Amino acid sequence: MTGKADRQTLVKLFFSVLYISAFTFGGGFVIITFMKRKFVDSLHWIDDQEMLDLAALAQSSPGAIAVNAAILVGWRVGGFLGMIVAVIGTILPPLVILSVISFFYAAFATNSYVALVLKGMQSGVAAVILDVVCNLGAGVIKTKSPVHLLVMVAAFCATFFFNVNVIYIILAAGVLGIILALLQHKKGEAA
Fold it and tell me: Residue 44: which region, alpha, beta or left (left: phi > 0; alpha: psi -120 to 50)?
C-alpha cells in the first residue's frame, strides 16, 4: 500500500494513530511497538523490515519519535494527505492531555496519588520498551548478517558501557550503512 489512499483508509489511519497516541505512555519507543502491532501485524499495510527501517529513520531524525514515525507511516500509507492525517492524529491526544494537565498543574503536582500512578506507569513503560528492544533486536538477528549483528552489539556496548552519546552512534551507523551500500552498488556494477 503506497501513494494515494482512499477516504476509508485515511479515516482508518487517523483513528489508528489517534488511538495509539492517546493510550501510549512512555515516549516514542513505546509508540513504535504499537504502530508495529497495528500497521504490520493487524492491518498489513507495511512489513516488518519496513517498520524497522521507519523506526530507525524516525529515531535518527530530529524531533519527537512518535511524530516522525507518524510522518513516515502516513506518507507510506497515504502519501502527503496520509502524512498530514497521521500527524494530526498523533499530536492531538498529547495536546489535549497536556493542556488539561497544565491547567490543573498545581493540583496534580502535589497529589500523592498522581505521583503513585506515575511511578506505576514507569514500570509498565520499562516493560514495553524492553519489548521494543527484543522485537527490533530479533529483526536484526533474523537477517543473519554479521555486519548488522556487529553494529548492534557495538552500539549497545558503546552506549551501555562507555556512555557514548547516541547521536554519535547513529551517525557512525549511518556512515557505515552508506559505505556498505556503496560497496554493494560497486559489486553490482562489476557483475
Answer: left
For residue 26, being part of any structural domain is answered with yes
Low-confidence ranges of the chain (pLDDT < 70): 1-4, 27
Residue numbers of the domain that contains 84: 7-110
Q: Is residue 84 domain-resident?
A: yes
Q: Identify the three-state secondary structure at position 111.
A: coil
Q: How far apart are CA 86 and CA 70, in angstroms?
A: 5
Q: What is the pLDDT of residue 1?
A: 56
Residues with Cβ within 8 Å of residue 15, at least 6 apart in sequence:
89
Domain count, the chain: 1
* Set of cell numbers at residue 4: 494515494
Q: To which H or E segment does residue 23 belong?
A: none
The closest of 63, 37, 64, 62 to 51, measured between CA atoms, is 37
Residue 30 included in any domain? yes
Tens-place pLDDT, residues 92-101: 999 998 898 8
Residue 144 located in a structural domain:
no
